[in-house]
Amino acid sequence: MVATLQGNAPLAEGALPDGCADWLYHIITPTDNPLKALAVSLIPEPGKAIEADQLARGFLESDQLLDTVARQLTRGSKRRLLLLVDQ
Fold it and tell me: Which domain holds residue 78?
């Protein structure tokens, strides 16, 4: 799906969302700690384990935090965030 969207190849019904090639794509595999996997995927710099732990705890405490993080990642652009959970 992501490869199709990034490459602007049509989906089965033949249409793609406008601008999808410019979206931010984050693919996660939940593992035994799904919130940590999500946090690690959203932190742009490798080696940020402490920040990922804090973010994962924040997801438990706030149901608005993911929206806040998504808005920060796309701030100043018309890009969208596509979060794909590969189970």
Answer: 2-85
Give the C-alpha distances (Å, rounded to integers) separating 43 from 4, 6, 24, 53. 24, 21, 13, 11
Inform me whether the pLDDT recorded for 20 exceeds 80. Answer: no
pLDDT in tens, 72-83: 888 888 888 888
Structural domains in the chain (count): 1
Contacts of 65 (CB under 8 A, 6+ apart): 55, 58, 59
Match 């969208």 to its residue by tokens: 80
Residues of 31-59 as b/e, b for ≥16 C-beta within 10 angstroms? eeeebbbbbbbbbeeeeeeeebeebbebb
